[in-house]
Amino acid sequence: MRIKRTGDTQNRKTLYLSLAALGLVGLLGIVVLCYATISRMKTTGSEVDETHVKKDATLDVNQVSDDSMKKAREAKLAADKAEEDRRARAERDRLAKEEKDKRDANRGSNDQGHAASVPPPPGQNTPVVETPRQRKLGAAMFVTSEDAMGTGAADTQPQQPTNDQPSLPPSLLADVQGGSSSGLGGESPSRKHSSLSDLGGTTFAPAKAYLAPNRKYLVSHNTYTRCALYTEIISTHPGLVDCRLTDPLYSADGSTVIAAAGDKLTGEQTVQVGPGETSVFTTWTEIETQSGVRAKLDSLGAGPMGASGTEAWINRHYMQRFGGAVMLSFIQDALQAASNTTQKSSGSGGYTVNNSEQNVESMANKALDSTINIPDTAHLLPGTVITVIVARDIDFSSVFENR
Fold it and tell me: Residue 103: is its pLDDT beyond 70?
């Protein structure tokens, strides 16, 4: 027998209703509080007087033209021109001074020659005193060949020493006087390895050191840079090419960005691909930066490791070269097979096609001669990375300035 508990159920309902009422009252209180706060924020507060507000210092800048680069460039060009004028004046002064010194020297030599031509007074014969060097270089100390004398030993006369005898070592003076005479030991002149006149080695022109331009704005020779090909290259015809730098081009000391990534290089492709070659040779003539600076480049394109030329896909044109000749050869074989079949089936009374076979063979030879020399064609697609080797020093100091 179950007993129904009505009291507990009533209490539970009362508890639930009380909790719901409390929650509703709390939620209503929160809404009222928020509304009051927002209303107060709208009604309270003072107006801001914007007449006394100061501008931001970073925005308060006078809008003037920034021509410091232009002024620096003009000053640099003026200084260079003044330096060139000064050097030109110094060169003209030096040449004028040398010309004047030459005229004075010629005038002095003429005066000395005139004075030497005046004969000494009678009875005053001044004896010529020879130095030991002049006595050693006299004609009596040397043997002159018959070829040098012209008429043999019978017409040989002793050479009188003069004051104009050159001061040369005896060995070299003997070679000069001997002319085309035989070498030492009676050898022929063709054996030059035994002649003292061959003791002088190869003469090289001297070189002079010079100061390189400022490395801060210099792109030195043999600098490597990379660019992505912008135009397609087909080596059938020469044409212009274009590429974009993939990396910045820095100066020699690495402190200045001469050309940013994306700057343009222009060049030419004029060399046709030869038999067996697998690369295309390109020349790059000019570089142009995004700021409008242009410079003559005249450099070559290379592969990733610096070898001249860029690897390309090569079309050998095998079908065009040999297709006609092979087709005519098949026709010749077909005619020969038909001739053999006809002769076997008809006995001795069969038809022959010798003339047709000979004509086909001649046509095949002519076709092969006309197509065998078709040149290969190289293809380079846009986006191919090319290494450009700078072949000369390029000075950008006249157009660049670091701030």
Answer: yes
CB contact set of 314 (below 8 Å; sequence gap of 6+): 273, 277, 278, 376, 377, 378, 379
Output the six-digit token pair for 23.
């929650």
Query: Kind of pairing, strands 310-311 and 249-250?
Result: unpaired
Give residue for tokens 């002095």: 108
Strand partners, 250: 257
In sequence order, what are the residues at sequence separation of 6 or more whose Cβ sits closer than 8 angstroms to the Cβ of residue 233?
239, 241, 269, 280, 282, 312, 378, 379, 380
Rounded CA-CA distance 221/24 in Å is 86
Structure tokens at 11: 């209490």
Query: What residue type is 248 in one-letter code?
Result: P
* Residue 213 contacts residue 352 (beta carbons within 8 Å): no
pLDDT digits (tens, 9 = 90+) for 187-197: 444 455 555 56
What's the Cα-to-Cα distance from 6 to each of 9, 12, 237, rounded to whole Å? Answer: 5, 10, 108
The domain ranges of the chain are 215-315+379-395, 318-373
Q: Does 211 score more than 90 pLDDT? A: no
What is the reported pLDDT for 51?
A: 75
3-state SS class at 387: strand
Q: Say if domain 215-315+379-395 classifies as CATH 2.40.128.260.
A: yes
| Positive/negative CA dihedral, 128, 131, 137, 142 | positive
C-alpha distances (whole Å) from 343 to each of 346, 348, 350, 355 are 5, 7, 5, 16
- Which pLDDT belongs to residue 180? 43
User: At residue 258, does pLDDT exceed 80?
Assistant: yes
- Which pair of tokens denotes residue 282? 């390109």
